């Protein structure tokens, strides 16, 4: 590669590198030259109790005087990192050394004495049922009575081999029988125990690496093209080699350390290090661990909890406790909703058909009303239904209806929904405690540490702000990944529901279709403003996990997640009427479904009461009256916890309702008619909804 070509291809990455270092970097990349060892050396325990990186070059390093190429020891993704470690023992060994992970001494469990005063052997687990055939086999092979064989099996939890081996430990056992038994099974049992111990040691080491990796990992973004031809961004996590990983932290660092993706003989990721201050011989190289977007001192301290092992914990707990007190001082909202549609414009004989313009495939496919026709012009349409965000509200004319509200992202973006609920109501039972990891990092870390201090289990679900279909969602117990995952894009941390109500032992959630519509209070005088209706479609969908629920194995998607229609999973089809019938039988000791549904409706109503009341950008209340009217269809996901307390999980923009139309052929017709009664039979359409 020519130098000019290198500059052109890498111009954006080079923008943050001093120009005097561009050519030295190019030469090292072309030669694959890792010469940091000529100028730098590792120290252990000086001055830190871990590895640190120091200048060994005589005369030290000068500001912008050199640039070093650093290799990456491991590139991974959180969801695949454990599998990679299981398949790569050499990598495990290397990371164990880099992270200074000590191996625990293997402690042999002492056998409990089984003898009592009269010399008889007693059972430590007399209630354990043991198969009669196994008792006879142990008695025969161990040359003991069936009574003694049963006790041995009970004491060993029903393990045949372990029971036989336990009998060899007793001195009153026949010596010849002991020798035969030892020869027959002893060697294999020892080998099995050794293999199990080795496997446990391996898994324990990997778990330690998975915990410690967040102190060493860094991340970068790259673009990929999916099967549909769309370009999307993905994130990779990487750990630098021994040299790069030994750099210490300072908020006034003397070096810049950054990833560099070299496009030469293929695409290879490295890191580069260059000094931004003069560093004397034996001086320690430092970089700033804290991302540049974290500005507030409290947030910076919160981020450093990953590395500081408890420093500043009391201060962060105080931040959380203050925020918690403030969230309780909230004024209730009087919902601004009307039950009946005011002055509905119904179709009259001789009226033209209602013209619908849509970019939404399921709407175009399922529109079957005689009074509605599809049109190709936005300007000529009475009703517009878009599947993508609409921005040109000022271009809409009098009489038009559109399927979006201005700033409805106040409910459809996860971080905005949490902020809206918190601002309107404080902490409420129907909304999980949620933190925006961009703006509330200190409060979140304080809450996590408060839980630790009060022996409350920390279990959090980390989600991107605005991705659907369960993408990039993980469940975490440790603080470090929750803090560090924010580095790959905006995230929320939400308390995981540890006590979900189950259906046949499995976790489930419910998808509701909710219609919000605005109408002029006075059609002849739009300046009088709007009135609103919110209504829930009576038919809902049940989404079931495929495996029984348990608070363990959090990377098992089919145990902890319910969205199975994206990916190679079995999808349970269950009609809502059958679900209600089965649920009331299974949970006869809990509320009747009608009462649960009333609670769900009230939670949904509360969300939209806040949304249409709060001014933009916190809510969606318009600052002025527009000539058009708006409506929107949302997919709302609800879970039940404890004694059937509903929890609104999220509100989804423009849900795909293809399946709804298959279950109920009148689904779209009912929505269109409620939005504009000229489309069909309003009384019939309203019967499909609960008007809140």
Automatic annotation (TrEMBL):
Residues 64-117, 199-290 form the Tubulin--tyrosine ligase-like protein 12 SET-like domain. The keyword Transferase does not apply. Keywords: Ligase. GO terms for cellular component: cytoplasm. InterPro entries: SET_TTL12, TTL/TTLL_fam, TTLL12. Pfam families: SET_TTL, TTL. One of its GO terms (molecular function) is ligase activity. It comes from the Eukaryota. PROSITE patterns: TTL. This is Tubulin--tyrosine ligase-like protein 12.
